[in-house]
Amino acid sequence: MKLTMEDIILDSDPRIREKSQPVDLPLSDENRELLQAMLQYVRDSQDDEIAQAENLQPAVGIAAIQLGIPKQMIAVVVPEEDGVHEVALANPKIISESVQNGYLNGGEGCLSVKEEHPGHVFRHARIKVRGYDLIQDKKTVISANGYFAIALQHEIDHLSGILFYDRIDANDPWKKDPEAEVI
């Protein structure tokens, strides 16, 4: 299975707001293939040559619902200074979160959102996520901070039908939080 931009639904499609359902473990062959394809899309989208040749929009994450499939599966690949953080999670659940917020200084974007939605999206600066990771082939708990934590929360939001711009303050999109970690 190979994914391209044609497979990704946009925020104009009502399915993007559907709640995703947990998947059975161990993963079925079908779900394993889908999650692997999602991970490969994100990996390939970060390689300029492959992205251009295969019509891939650059991404750090994708959720199955963005393919119109309401299953609790996400793939995240975040290159950072300390290495690449990669997960392909089934049934991800945030089990702890910091009080301190974090946000991307330039705002967030999304494969399913074509229009600009400028503003700060406040999320938890640090989180722990439990789920089954296809890469490790086991249930795991992931501790994340910085950009990786934000990307995980963005994708997990998709599983509840929440888009990043739902979290932007309509009255003050660029409001500051002096206590927040700016990424």
TrEMBL record:
Cofactor info, note text: Binds 1 Fe(2+) ion.
Residues that bind Fe cation: 110, 154, 158
Keywords: Hydrolase, Iron, Metal-binding, Protein biosynthesis
One annotated GO biological process: translation
GO MF annotation terms: metal ion binding; peptide deformylase activity
InterPro entries linked: Peptide_deformylase (IPR023635), Peptide_deformylase_sf (IPR036821)
First-tier enzyme category under EC: hydrolase
Record's catalysed reaction(s): N-terminal N-formyl-L-methionyl-[peptide] + H2O = N-terminal L-methionyl-[peptide] + formate
Family: Belongs to the polypeptide deformylase family.
Purpose of the protein: Removes the formyl group from the N-terminal Met of newly synthesized proteins. Requires at least a dipeptide for an efficient rate of reaction. N-terminal L-methionine is a prerequisite for activity but the enzyme has broad specificity at other positions.
Protein name as catalogued: Peptide deformylase
Gene from which this protein is expressed: def
